[in-house]
């Protein structure tokens, strides 16, 4: 195709500068070069953020995409470097209210505590209308068997149960879970933790990712079905990690 010379008069493409931060471990889970290419094709120029430097010194951003969940969790647990990073990040956002943040820090805080997360879901409009089903749950704050049994009965939690640490991020223990099949095994829980009625789901788990009005559903392998009175009750408590 012969050039007409009009190309010289076309406006230069506009790129929006996007600051990105995630841990090295998270970065390795996807193809960074392909991600950069896809973003540029949509007018987004990705810039890696250095949390050790002031954000003001790293240029202007139209959007910040981050995975600061573990940093926030460590800060909440008292880690001083993490607290400093989050404080500096919040100061920058207050000084630049027009910068879009994915995800807003105040929303992430809701997901750091499993009890708050489950309560939020069950108390939402979708939860009240039975569109979303949240298995019955209760928080254990001690290893006292009688106390925990009473809490389970009051909340309608039945065996088998899956126990998860209340803190959902920030350490390897946050993803350590256990299945408990009877009252006698309740003394092995590690509080604070959330006990949730285990719902059989044929070893298939669906993860739903939502951004605005777009969504993506991913199928993942999960635990097999369990039943009260099964052989598992006589076996050692199964423990596993959920990623």
Structure write-up:
This protein has about 240 residues and is α/β, with parallel strands linked by helices. Helix content is about 30%, strand content about 25%. The protein has eight helices and eleven strands. The chain has helices spanning about 25, 30-40, 70-75, 80-95, 105-110, 115-125, 125-130, 145-155; strands at about 15-20, 45-50, 65, 100, 135-140, 160-165, 175-180, 195, 205-210, 215-220, 240. The strands form three sheets. A five-stranded antiparallel beta sheet has the order 5-8-6-7-11, with helices on both faces. A four-stranded parallel beta sheet has the order 2-1-3-4. A two-stranded antiparallel ribbon has the order 9-10. Helix 3 packs across helix 4 (about 80-95). It is elongated. The relative contact order is 0.10.
Task: Please render the helix and strand layout as text.
Layout: E1 16-21, H1 24-27, H2 32-41, E2 44-48, E3 63-66, H3 69-76, H4 80-95, E4 100-102, H5 105-111, H6 114-123, H7 125-128, E5 137-140, H8 145-155, E6 161-165, E7 176-180, E8 193-197, E9 204-211, E10 214-221, E11 239-241
Parallel strand pairs: 1-2, 1-3, 3-4
Antiparallel strand pairs: 5-8, 6-7, 6-8, 7-11, 9-10
The secondary-structure element order is EHHEEHHEHHHEHEEEEEE
Task: Profile the largest sheet.
Answer: 5 strands, antiparallel
Number of strands: 11
Poorly predicted regions: none
Question: What percent of residues adopt helix (DSSP H or I)?
Answer: 25-40%
Query: How far apart are the termini?
Result: 52 Å
Outline type: elongated
Structural class: alpha/beta
Strand order of the largest sheet: 5-8-6-7-11
Average pLDDT figure: 86
Strand % is 15-25%
* Gyration radius over CA: 23 Å
Number of helices: 8
